[in-house]
Design a protein that fits this description.
mainly alpha; globular; disordered N terminus
Length: about 270
């Protein structure tokens, strides 16, 4: 009788250990699956293919807009219309307040909108590769993609809307024919503002949750860059606003799609046997 009881206890212990082992393996599998569903780009065919698919996604999004999207569009266009009404006054304000000090400051800040940003993205990529920091490497490629796609849309818009620059005109409502090729009508929208805002938004999206100070720094630099374009009379205030809006929303959309793809990948992994 005693021998039978010992055997029964041993079987119960084995069953418990087996259940514990299966539970542990299940937890490890879920953890591995969660890690595997995170998308991290490298420069390869998958990344290059994502550029094309994200371009199609970005261009086609207006056909899928819902109420809140049209509200955002209304806010952007309404603010642009309001700024167009005071574009002349804004130009006059900055023109009356030129000093040697501000000339020096704007000269240092202005390159964030063209020269510094590409070097920053390239530096992030090299640092990520050398340090084997996959998140930094991935973020640099996401930033480069966002900047490329927003620039493509910007280039098309600037080719169609040939607005006179405040450098050459006092009237903010001077336009030339679409696709006319001259330097006098290249004000709309601000390319500097689009570039710096695209980069600022990408960094805020990638690191804002982990480091709350990142959005404050990146967007502050973007605002200062836009201000230099007004100070130097290179753009009207409405050009700067629309350049910032384009860079911001295109980049936000690309990062949102990335998160949606990761969620779909995780759901597919969870449903798999």
């Amino acid at each position: 009788m005693l021998l039978l009881q010992i055997k029964a206890n041993a079987q119960t212990t084995d069953t418990t250990n087996l259940h514990y082992t299966d539970s542990t393996r299940s937890t490890e599998t879920r953890t591995l699956t969660a890690a595997d569903t995170t998308i991290r780009y490298r420069i390869n065919g998958a990344y290059l293919g994502s550029i094309w698919s994200d371009l199609k996604y970005t261009v086609s999004r207006p056909a899928h807009w819902q109420g809140k999207d049209f509200v955002r569009l209304g806010i952007v266009l309404g603010a642009a219309g309001g700024l167009m009404g005071v574009d002349y006054e804004v130009k006059q304000f900055f023109g009356r307040n030129h000093t040697n000090f501000w000339n020096s400051v704007t000269g240092q800040v202005e390159p964030f909108g063209n020269a510094y940003s590409p070097y920053l993205v390239g530096g992030m990529y090299l640092a990520g590769v050398i340090a084997k920091d996959r998140k930094l490497e991935h973020t640099s490629l996401m930033t480069a993609k966002s900047l490329l796609l927003s620039t493509l849309i910007y280039t098309f818009a600037k080719s169609v809307v040939r607005r006179g620059r405040p450098t050459y005109y006092d009237d903010p409502f001077v336009y030339n024919a679409p696709f006319s090729m001259d330097k006098y009508h290249t004000s709309f929208p601000s390319g500097h503002m689009l570039t710096v805002t695209s980069v600022a938004t990408a960094l805020a999206e990638a690191y804002g949750d982990e480091h709350p100070w990142v959005p404050w720094v990146t967007y502050s630099i973007a605002i200062m860059t836009g201000t230099t374009r007004l100070y130097q009379e290179r753009h009207w205030s409405s050009d700067v606003w629309l350049g910032a809006s384009l860079g911001y929303f295109v980049t936000k959309g690309i990062f949102k799609r990335q998160k949606d793809l990761e969620r779909k990948k995780a759901l597919k992994a969870h449903m798999a046997p």
